[in-house]
Amino acid sequence: MKPKTRRRRHGFTLIELLLVAGILAVLAAFAIPSLMGTAQQANISIAKAGIGRNGPIAKALKSYKWDTGRYPDTDEGLQALYVLKGQADNDNYKGPYMEGAYEELVDPWGNPYEYRSPGDMNQEEFDLWSWGPDREDNGGKAGSDDVKNWIEK
């Protein structure tokens, strides 16, 4: 008679599975908040790049001024950068200075950029800003998430 051989089971025990699930939960608890902050910081950086001195909006505004002799006033706003040549009142206008549609010119949170010319902060040029992720004016308070093309003093 042959001795009985034990069949070996292949797989994991319940305790092993629970241990792995617990380890993954702990790792996720540390990683997810860190990643969320990184995404928000990336959006702030994108907004800063868009409205900064060498950003595409600022360059378009400077091209507009180069051709017409002035920045669009506050009432004309950033829409002036999208007017087709021949539809502008100024014969020197060579636009449009921005591609796409004006409605596409939004900050990373889906809000239109704010524009003022002449600026309150940049009196010789223009003020350009985004209210940031909270979509509210924080009035230059410390820790403000507003993104501006000027430096608070």
Strand arrangement across the biggest beta sheet: 1-2-3
Supply the number of helical segments. Answer: 2
User: What order do the helices and strands follow?
Assistant: HHEEE
The biggest beta sheet is recorded as: 3 strands, antiparallel
Distance between the termini: 95 Å
Level-1 CATH class name: Alpha Beta
| CATH level 4 superfamily | Glycoprotein, Type 4 Pilin
Proportion of helical residues: 25-40%
| Count of discrete domains | 1
Beta content comes to: 5-15%
Q: Please compute the radius of gyration using only Cα atoms.
A: 28 Å
Please provide the count of β strands: 3
> What is the CATH architecture term?
2-Layer Sandwich
3D shape: elongated
Low-confidence stretches: none
Mean pLDDT across every amino acid position: 85
Keywords for this structure?
Glycoprotein, Type 4 Pilin; three-stranded antiparallel beta sheet
Summarize, please:
This protein has helices at 14-51, 56-68; strands at 114-116, 127-130, 147-148.
